[in-house]
Design a protein that fits this description.
about 400 residues; alpha+beta; FAD/NAD(P)-binding domain; 6-stranded mixed β-sheet; binds flavin-adenine dinucleotide; binds 3,4-dihydroxybenzoic acid
């Protein structure tokens, strides 16, 4: 098989890139190792920056997002049994964020792709990218029980953190930077109306908790838990009791409880691979970088990479100019490091360290107090959370 752009991975990054290229008349093929059902059900992100919403609009994939996405004007911070609203429009000159689940973005993009897009092969597992330095890199993949090849002009590695694209970078050009946080998140989905109008980030007695939502009737909640926690050790009542304790404030507020329909544990890590391009292989999204989820940046970063990548490939297609593609890594990495810094700050400020001493706890509270006491500090949080300027 031959194509102009071989895309490895049918997550948000790969699917969005395929749409943007298809609309510009550039042919591509998407290889996704999992089944359609699996990728459409994988519970993950929910908070979209305005730039992410704009990119989905540009790709013609925002019809349901526009109808069903929930626009939020800020977040709530809870600590010391107090609640504090951070007003994004007031602090940023009008910016808001949108709550719309990653599962729904993937469903929307898959449906468009299967209706009129270039090929999207499920259960097609890429094994290796060969000759990325050449004019015709090749992706070897397994599909329908046999090994096949996809010969490309360019390869986009959008295969997430555990993918194989990064392996095609020779050791002498690769630099990677990583950090593992000493705690995990237990994420749950519950059939119960959200107990809040905006997301709550809480530094509670027993650790961090986050209240998010999926609709007027479905809540999404996260709880800091020790590494290697088994979700089966957390029956529903234990989860609700712990969430209620961590969100507790000295005011009239109750956490709605209901049936929990999904539970999973996620480790927390930061990781950046530099550079993001080698020859004709370009990495985008989690294939190149991971942030701890506390700042809700992973999906948004994947989308901003893809925007730059699509523009570079379209510029090359229209004018023969590779200037943008040549600057791809440098353009993306600036924003990646800023989002990593913000996610790290949010994570450290809100989670309890396993061996926390009283000094660390005081430092966390002092940071939170500064944000709620100073308009300048709150504006800094709001600017980062709602999304720093896009590279292009
Ligand atoms: P992925 O979604 O990982 O997609 C990669 C795809 O490649 C997958 O479908 C995979 O099956 C496929 N693949 C892998 N290997 C191969 C192979 N060899 N061959 C073919 N296909 C392959 N981000 C936010 O912006 N906001 C949030 O609110 C947020 N909350 C989060 C909460 C949690 C609990 C978690 C875990 C993450 C959260 N994120 C959030 C991060 C976000 O989900 C990821 O950053 C996002 O999924 C990245 O998209 P991607 O397309 O780069 O990678
Ligand atoms: C969600 C996840 C996050 O990590 C976050 O910071 C905000 C929202 C979510 O899944 O809705």
């Amino acid at each position: 098989m031959r194509t102009t752009v071989g895309i490895i991975g049918g997550g948000p990054a790969g699917l969005l890139l395929a749409r943007l290229l298809h609309r510009a008349g550039i042919d591509c093929v998407v290889l996704e190792s999992r089944t359609r059902e699996y990728v459409e059900r994988r519970q993950r992100a929910g908070m979209l920056e305005q730039g992410t919403v704009d990119a989905l609009r540009e790709a013609g994939a925002a019809e349901r997002l526009t109808a069903e996405g929930m626009i939020h004007q800020g977040i709530e911070l809870r600590f010391d049994r107090e609640r504090h609203h951070i007003d994004f429009p007031g602090l940023t000159g009008g910016r808001t964020v949108t709550i719309y689940a990653q599962t729904e973005i993937v469903k929307d993009l898959v449906a468009l792709q299967l209706a009129d897009g270039p090929p999207l092969l499920f259960e097609a597992e890429a094994l290796a990218v060969e000759k990325p330095e050449s004019a015709t890199p090749v992706v070897r993949f397994l599909h329908e029980g046999r090994e096949q090849t996809l010969t490309c002009a360019w390869v986009a590695g959008c295969d997430g953190f555990h993918g194989i694209s990064r392996d095609a970078f020779p050791a002498e050009v690769s630099r990677s930077y990583g950090h593992e946080y000493p705690y995990s998140w237990l994420g749950v989905l519950a059939e119960v109306p959200p107990s809040c109008d905006e997301l709550i980030y809480a530094r509670g007695e027993g650790g961090f908790a986050l209240h998010s939502m999926r609709s007027a009737t479905v809540s999404r909640l996260y709880l800091q838990v020790p590494d290697r926690t088994d979700p089966d050790d957390w029956p529903d009542d234990r989860i609700w009791d712990e969430l209620a304790a961590r969100f507790a404030i000295d005011a009239d507020w109750t956490l709605n409880r209901g049936p929990i329909t999904a539970k999973s544990v996620t480790t927390m890590r930061g990781y950046v691979h530099e550079p993001m391009r080698h020859g004709r292989l370009l990495l985008a999204g989690d294939a190149a970088h991971i942030v701890p989820p506390t700042g809700a940046k992973g999906l948004n970063l994947a989308v901003s990479d893809v925007r730059v990548l699509a523009r570079g490939l379209v510029e090359l297609h229209r004018t023969g100019d590779t200037q943008l593609l040549d600057r791809y890594s440098e353009l993306c990495l600036q924003r990646v490091w800023q989002a990593t810094r913000f996610s790290d700050d949010m994570t450290r400020m809100l989670h309890t360290q396993p061996n926390e001493d009283a000094f660390d706890a005081r430092m966390q509270l002092a940071r939170l107090r500064r944000i709620t006491a100073s308009r300048h500090a709150a504006a800094e949080l709001a600017a980062n959370y709602s999304g720093l300027p896009l590279p292009l």
